[in-house]
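Q: What does the assembly look like in three dimensions?
Context provided by user:
Components: two
Sequences:
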Amino acid sequence: MSDLALIAGLPEVRSAVLGDLAGGFYDAIKEPDGETVAAVMGFLATAVLQAGEHLGLGALRRAAVSGPTRAHLLVLHGTSVMTACVEPPASLASVEKALDAALTGRR
Amino acid sequence: MPRSSRPPDSGAPENADLTRLVGVKLGNYRLERLIGRGRMGIVYLAKDEALLRPTAIKILSWSVAEAAGQDPMQWFLAEARLVARINHPRVVQIYGAARHGDHCYIAMEYVVGSSAETLVAKSGRLAPDVATDMLLQAASALDAAHRSGVVHRDVKPANLLVGAGGVTKLGDFGMALGSAEVGAGNAHVRVGTPYYTAPEIWRGGAASPASDIYSLGATYFQLLTGRPPYPGQDVAAVEQAHLRAPVPDPREIVPDLPASCAALIARALAKTPRERHASAQILLWEGRRVLQDLMPAAGAAGAPATEARAGRSARPPRSTPPHTALASGPAAYAQALGFRARPFSLAIPGEAERQVEPLATLLRRLLEWARGDGGNVLALTGTRDSGRTAVARQAVGELARDRLALGLDVTVERAGRSVLQRVCRAAGVAEEPSEEASVDALLARFAEERPRRGTPLLVLDGVTVPHPSTAALARVVAAALWSRSFKLVLAGPAGSVDALGRAGVDFQGEAVPELPVPPLDRVQVAAHVRGWIEATLAPDAPPVIYSPDALLLLALRSEGALERVNCIAENMLVLAAAGGARALSSWHAWTASDGERWSHASPPELPRRPERWPPPEVIDVIDACRRGAGLPPWPRGTDG
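A: Here is the predicted structure of the complete assembly.
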């Protein structure tokens, strides 16, 4: 099972997209417009990376943006950017935890 | 002058009906038709039965002249002498003045056509280049008048007579008598038409060249927008607006107008004379620069996509249902997305903030040639939408900073004017009766410029064969080659110089160097799009995001031709604005037209994005693009 499928398999995750920092679109699960999501998340990831550098965070791993009804979790690995749409936003923490556990177990 | 000064044999009653003189013969002139009424008299079209030419006959209206306290004959003769001493092709020519029985009349050149006022009334407003061309011609006429010591005092659209080929002449110097010796006593009488009258005149000041410049500025405003700058309900309101209201920005009425048009108006309509153009000649020079800005963008606005487009993929049908409409064209979508100016227009924001390699290299080579001592004729070759026009335009703009640099789009005959006529006009040279004399005048102008500011440059863009003005082109080429007083760029498709040679244009055995406009590769296309968006997006606006696939498809569809890139990219933004989105995807790049500017449609019917995108056939195209860029294929197994 790919990382994308792993993320998308979490019950609170509505959809997931795999892209890169340049906004390139590589894969999507349950997302009808993966291309746009990848482009936007590539843009966001690049900006967040720069912000992380300014804040001295080192190699950035995750970022999240949250709205009233849903949130997006951004997972960076090298130049790859994985995005999970989480609903409701309150589930963000549990998704992150599950993701950590799953990815740790795989590595 | 007392009323008794009327000629003793006149016998004309105060209310003589001067409108019923059709058929009457005054001297050699047979009155044929009433064509106008001015403050000073009635104007008839007449036939000069000696010279067999149409002539305008202006017959004095007695009461008006007497009300002004002038001897009617002296008044009329004064006007005739005034105008007669202005020897300029853009001033309505006076053939003679005489008295015939009860009637004093002036025989004048009859301009076949309409007044600018009529043209504006018919079409709402004039195209900026047409309006600016009229401004230039009127400024040229005013300059000649002022140099002759004559202040017109009633410059307005109705007094710009537009004849065949757009030749515009300044007429009706009837109000100019204040500046003549006869009317010196009336110099402070407020004259003119309220919509165009300068503030100092409203304050009771004397008419001056500066007040003429103001009136011409107000006229230009009306030509561009269709209404005067201060359209008040009554004279008092108009007066107050002229005196106190800020100078209106014509772009609030016509958002597409270039800033240079607005800047010219702002200066001409300044409240105090010293803030205006120092002379009509200065106005003429500034107007010429504005006209350069307005050099039509080949391919920019609905240019037919006539070039072969080998290898292009099938396009989706345009019959998709209407999605939404933008309220008012380019300004609306630019505003919706937060652009400072309309992106992807040839009107470059600020100085050329972003230059695209290899076009920047091409521009540098062109500038080096123009500033160097090499040959005098060069060919700039490329398809119509290759970016040839953008390069030519940037070269003209760059060189205009230190020398006379003129650019003309000769693709299309403009209102029957030949290339030579248009070059003369752009150079501020009065057209002479013959082409030979026009060339002489043009060369004199270039020769005058050359030692002062360097060799002038003339760019003729859109040189094709056959061309309606091949003979005129031949004259211009010959003039460049034998006089060496200016440099000439012939911008056209590849092979146009050879074709001109075959059509009889004599290059005098000189090899004409050629600068071909290269196509942009996908990396350059992407850099161009990113650069332009960054350059024109307002600093406080949210970003516009584009997917790599969108840029790949854009590069594919445009085939690297700059103008096609611009057209597609602009239409992608229009689509995004209409959809309330700020992200450009492969759907935008696939759907956006490469032939028409959707932002110009009023309002356009824009395609709607389908539920599922992309369809398999588009994925095939995207995959081909991705392979070329070294990217993995589109995820066909996507679980949408």
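Follow-up: The interface with chain B takes residues 22-36, 38-40, 43 of chain A (CB under 8 Å).
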